UniProtKB/TrEMBL annotation:
Keyword Membrane set for record: yes
Name the record gives this protein: histidine kinase
Broad EC category: transferase
Keyword Nucleotide-binding: yes
Annotated organism of origin: Micromonospora arida
Length: 395
C-alpha cells in the first residue's frame, strides 16, 4: 500500500484491519483444526498473499503442502505456519478491535448527531463513550467533534497500522536463509533445464532449416552445374539447354542465400548489429499493427545476448497484442538501473493473457529466465495488460 491517494490507503487499511479481526477470531475458534500442517499452510499462504497485496510487494508463491504424516510435520515451513496461528490471533484481534472501535464510534456519532431525538430517553446515544446526547447543542458540538477526531484518526492511523500487521505477517512467514538458498537453487536448476531444452530445440530447428532448405538447394545447384558441365563437354553447341541449367542454378543460389539469411536472422537479427537495440525496437514498434509508443532511456552498453532476448521478447509480445488483445494502443518502455534492464510492455486490450496456456508468453518467460531474469504478467479479464521483464545486463 505504497501508492494511491491517502483516503484510498486509509480505506484499504481499514478494511484490511477489520478483515484481520475476523480472521483472528476465526483462528481462535478453529485453532485445533488449523493446527493440522496442511490446513495451517493454506491459512498461512492466504494471509501471506493478502499481506503482499496490501504492501504491493510481489511475492513468490509458496508450495501447497501435499505430504502427510511425519513428512508434513518435518517440512521446514511448518513451524512458521503454526507460529502464525497465535500471532494472527493476537495481532489480528487487537489491531482489528482498534479499527472496529474507531469505525463503530464514528458511525455512532454520525447517527446520533441528526437523529438523537428519535431514541427513547433511556436509550439515547452516548458520545465520547459516556456523554448522553439530550439536546441539539450537545449533538452538534460533541457529535461533530467526535466525527472529526475519529475521521482524522482513521485517516492517519489505519494505513500504517495495517502495513505494520502485514509486515509482521511476512516476517513470520518469510523463508529462512537456507530455504531461500534452496528455492534459488531449485529455480536455477529448473531454468537451466528449460534453457537446455530450448537450446536443443533451437539447434534442431536450425539444423532442420539448413538441411531441408539451404542444403537441399545447394545440392540441386551442384547437380545442375554437373549436368551443365557434362552437356558442355558432350555438345558445346546446345546453348539453350546450357542457358536453362545455368539460369536454374543462378535462381537456386539466390533462394539458398535468402533462406540462409533468414536462418541467420533468427539467431541474431542483423538489425541489432546495424542499428542497436534502440533502432531495432523502433522498427518492431513501427511494424506493429497497433499504434505503439516507444520510450527508451539511456541504456549504455548492453550485452549482445541480452539485446537479442529483449528484441525477440518485445517482438513476440507485440505480435500477441496485435493478434489477440483487441487493443487500440500499446506501449513499450525500456530503462536501465545499475546492472538491471527493465522492459515494460502495456496495452489497453481485453486482458486475460496467461502464459500457463502455452501462449507466446511462455516462450518470453523461458527466454528471459535463461538470463536469470524475471517476468511479471498482470492481465486481468477486461484489461489492461502489463508485462514487466527485468534482465541482468552487467558486464
Amino acid at each position: 500500500m505504497t501508492s494511491g491517494r491517502p483516503w484510498v490507503q486509509a480505506w484499504r487499511g481499514g478494511t484490511y484491519l477489520l478483515g484481520s479481526l475476523v480472521t483472528g477470531i476465526a483462528t481462535l475458534l478453529a485453532l485445533p483444526l488449523l493446527c493440522h500442517p496442511r490446513l495451517a499452510r493454506r491459512w498461512a499462504n492466504w494471509h501471506r498473499d493478502r499481506a503482499g497485496r496490501l504492501l504491493e510487494t510481489p511475492l513468490a508463491p509458496r508450495p501447497v503442502l501435499h505430504v502427510m504424516g511425519r513428512r508434513a510435520w518435518a517440512d521446514p515451513a511448518t513451524p512458521r505456519d503454526l507460529l502464525w496461528l497465535p500471532v494472527n490471533a493476537i495481532t489480528g484481534v487487537a489491531l482489528g478491535l482498534l479499527a472496529l472501535l474507531c469505525v463503530g464510534n464514528l458511525l455512532t456519532a454520525a447517527v446520533a448527531t441528526p437523529l438523537w431525538w428519535a431514541f427513547a430517553p433511556e436509550n439515547r446515544p452516548r458520545l465520547f463513550i459516556d456523554v448522553p446526547v439530550t439536546n441539539w447543542a450537545t449533538a452538534f458540538t460533541l457529535g461533530a467533534l467526535q466525527i472529526l477526531l475519529l475521521t482524522a484518526l482513521a485517516y492517519l492511523a489505519f494505513a500504517p497500522i495495517a502495513r505494520a500487521h502485514a509486515r509482521i505477517c511476512l516476517v513470520v512467514l518469510s523463508h529462512s536463509a537456507a530455504e531461500q538458498l534452496a528455492d534459488r537453487v531449485a529455480v536455477l536448476t529448473r531454468t537451466r533445464a528449460d534453457v537446455l531444452d530450448a537450446h536443443g530445440a533451437e539447434l534442431r530447428r536450425i539444423e532442420r532449416d539448413l538441411h531441408d532448405g539451404t542444403q537441399a538447394r545447394l545440392v540441386a545447384i551442384a547437380m545442375r552445374l554437373a549436368v551443365a558441365r557434362r552437356a558442355l563437354s558432350d555438345n558445346p553447341r546446345n546453348e539453350q539447354f546450357l542457358e536453362e541449367l545455368l539460369r536454374d542454378a543462378h535462381e537456386g543460389t539466390e533462394e539458398a542465400m535468402t533462406e540462409l539469411r533468414d536462418v541467420i536472422r533468427s539467431v541474431y537479427p542483423p538489425i541489432l548489429a546495424d542499428r542497436g537495440l534502440t533502432g531495432a525496437l523502433t522498427a518492431v514498434t513501427a511494424r506493429c499493427g497497433v499504434p505503439t509508443r516507444l520510450d527508451i532511456d539511456n541504456l549504455d552498453t548492453v550485452p549482445a545476448a541480452v539485446e537479442a532476448a529483449v528484441y525477440f521478447a518485445v517482438a513476440e509480445a507485440l505480435t500477441n497484442v496485435a493478434k489477440h488483445s483487441q487493443a487500440t494502443t500499446a506501449g513499450v518502455r525500456v530503462s536501465r538501473k545499475a546492472d538491471r534492464l527493465s522492459v515494460v510492455i502495456t496495452d489497453n486490450g481485453a486482458g486475460g493473457a496467461d502464459d500457463r496456456l502455452g501462449t507466446g508468453l511462455a516462450g518470453i518467460r523461458r527466454r528471459v529466465l535463461a538470463f536469470d531474469g524475471t517476468v511479471d504478467v498482470d492481465s486481468p479479464a477486461g484489461g489492461p495488460t502489463t508485462i514487466i521483464m527485468e534482465l541482468p545486463c552487467g558486464s
